[in-house]
């Protein structure tokens, strides 16, 4: 009887040790990158030309709430499409410290159709007109380098793989029905914060050539919205918008400012004011929150009933639930300079 009891206790102890080992193993790597999702090949992931793309050109690994909201809202609006977040701070051996808290990174990693990918600019720009420029440039001497490197990366990614690029302060609210498009900030002036094309579209190849030919790091946006506007004027002869109709030229569409910019950059504070329920976004596909203008560091406050709080609650509820705190624990992290 005693031997049987000892044997039973030994078996129980063995199972308990095995369970404890598995628990500790998982706990020590709780904040590690999910191997399958992290090791995805961009070519395989985005080759169908239907991906949604975000880019982070700083070394940051813990995105602030607005970035998380942008990615989560895209994942919700496009549940059958891959959402690829290219991050310069990632590489093939990246592992987050197990004794640190990375709630935003963990939140994004847990979304089924979100994939966090390393941003290797040298590899990305190969076989594009941007490569010769990139290997010659001294990044440390360039004004606005985080913006410029982001401008270059988004052109190369969408040219190679196709899909839709969005800045990390763009909240998606409904699917974009266009394949080849630019987004108007205002009449005759294009944004580069949102655009979409099929792979190897000649417009983007022309943009990359123009990027190099007219490169000037001292002018903010010269390789971004100014470049897109320059190229649009070379590509098309467009007049002003009539009503809410989009403009079409050759094989691309120039989408009305209401689609992404119903609130202009001069009025960006409206996002952080109490929500005016008469303000409708029925004609919009997504909203650009102009975070580059937010030098005051305005944030989302739980219970404030601001427009931005209501957008978070509706379009990125997990981000709102997990990352937005009340006034006493106000979230004050701001979007970094690598994104507009």
Summarize the structure.
The protein is an alpha/beta fold and 340 residues long. It contains twelve helices and ten strands. Helix 4 runs antiparallel to helix 12.
Descriptors:
340 residues; transmembrane; 10 strands; eight-stranded mixed sheet; membrane; Spore Coat Polysaccharide Biosynthesis Protein SpsA, Chain A; 14% strand; two-stranded antiparallel ribbon; Glycosyltransf_32; alpha/beta
Describe this structure in words.
This protein is 36% helix and 14% strand. It has twelve helices and ten strands. It has helices at 2-28, 35-38, 42-46, 65-77, 103-110, 121-124, 130-136, 145-161, 202-213, 225-235, 307-315, 317-323, and strands spanning 52-56, 83-87, 114-118, 163-166, 170-172, 181-186, 189-197, 247-249, 252-255, 286-288. The strands form two sheets. Strands 3-2-1-4-7-6-9-8 form an eight-stranded mixed beta sheet, with helices on both faces. A two-stranded antiparallel sheet has the order 5-10. It starts with a helix and ends in a 17-residue tail after the last helix.
The N- and C-terminal alpha carbons lie at a distance of 74 Å
Strand count: 10
| Biggest pleated-sheet summary | 8 strands, mixed
CATH T-level topology: Spore Coat Polysaccharide Biosynthesis Protein SpsA, Chain A
β-strand amount: 5-15%
Average pLDDT reading: 86
Tell me the Rg in angstroms.
Answer: 23 Å
Oligomer: single chain
What are the segments in which pLDDT stays under 50 over at least 5 consecutive residues? 1-7, 11-36, 328-340
**Named CATH architecture:** Alpha-Beta Complex
* Widest sheet, order of strands: 3-2-1-4-7-6-9-8
Query: How many distinct folded domains?
Result: 1
CATH class category label: Alpha Beta
H and E string: HHHEHEHEHHHEEEEHHEEEHH
Global shape: globular
Subcellular location: Golgi apparatus membrane
Family: Belongs to the glycosyltransferase 32 family.
Membrane topology: Single-pass type II membrane protein
Pfam families: Gb3_synth, Gly_transf_sug
């Amino acid at each position: 009887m005693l031997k049987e009891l000892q044997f039973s206790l030994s078996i129980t102890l063995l199972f308990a040790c095995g369970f404890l080992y598995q628990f500790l193993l998982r706990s020590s790597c709780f904040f590690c990158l999910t191997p399958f999702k992290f090791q995805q090949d961009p070519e395989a992931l985005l080759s169908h030309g239907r991906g949604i793309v975000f880019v982070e050109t700083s070394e940051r690994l813990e995105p602030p709430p607005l970035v998380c909201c942008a990615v989560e809202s895209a994942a919700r609006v496009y549940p059958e499409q891959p959402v690829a977040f290219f991050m310069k701070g990632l590489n093939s051996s990246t592992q987050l410290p197990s004794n640190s808290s990375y709630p935003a990174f963990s939140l994004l990693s847990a979304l089924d159709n979100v994939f966090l990918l390393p941003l290797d600019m040298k590899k990305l720009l190969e076989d594009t007109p941007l490569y010769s420029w990139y290997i010659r440039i001294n990044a440390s001497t360039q004004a606005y380098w985080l913006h410029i490197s982001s401008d270059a990366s988004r052109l190369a990614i969408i040219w190679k793989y196709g899909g839709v690029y969005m800045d990390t302060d763009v909240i998606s609210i409904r699917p974009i029905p266009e394949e080849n498009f630019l987004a108007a900030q205002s009449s005759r002036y294009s944004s580069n914060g949102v655009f979409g094309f099929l792979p190897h579209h000649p417009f983007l190849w022309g943009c990359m050539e123009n990027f190099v030919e007219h490169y000037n790091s001292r002018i903010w946006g010269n390789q971004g919205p100014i470049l897109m506007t320059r190229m649009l004027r070379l590509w098309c002869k467009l007049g002003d918008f009539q009503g809410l109709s989009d403009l079409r030229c050759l094989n691309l569409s120039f989408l009305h400012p209401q689609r992404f910019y119903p609130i202009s950059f001069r009025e960006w504070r409206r996002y952080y004011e109490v929500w005016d329920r008469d303000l409708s976004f029925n004609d919009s596909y997504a909203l650009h929150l102009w975070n580059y203008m937010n030098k005051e560091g305005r944030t989302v406050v739980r219970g404030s009933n601001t427009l931005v709080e209501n957008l978070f609650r509706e379009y990125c509820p997990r981000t709102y639930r997990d990352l937005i705190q009340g006034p006493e624990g106000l979230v004050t992290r701001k979007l970094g300079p690598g994104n507009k």
